Amino acid sequence: MSSIQARLGRLEERGVRCPECGLAPDERRKVAVVYEEEPERSFDGDPAERCGRCGRFLYTVLRVVYDDAEGGGA
User: What is the pLDDT of residue 70?
Assistant: First the structure.
């Protein structure tokens, strides 16, 4: 590992923002809503997208699932 990569890793562990995506480790991400049964209403993009530099997810994904079964409210 290069010294620059090691330094970036240490800075990110302390909560410093990533220079590429601008997000801190504990910062809230944008929400991407994915409708299982209505893809046309879903987030337009890749909800699993990660920052190329720090590897963190760029979105918090909410999957909307409709289920008629009773008693499964876990």
Answer: 56
Token couple for 29 = 């991400």
d(CA 28, CA 60): 8
Residue 26 scores a pLDDT above 70: yes
69 part of a folded domain: no
How far is residue 50's CA from residue 29's CA, in Å, rounded to a whole number?
Answer: 11
pTM over 0.70: no
What DSSP string runs through 13-48? HTTPPPTTT---TTSPPEEEEEESS-GGGS-SS-TT
At 10, the amino acid letter reads R
Residue 60 lies in a domain: yes
Cα 15 to chain center, whole Å? 16
Residue 69: predicted pLDDT: 53
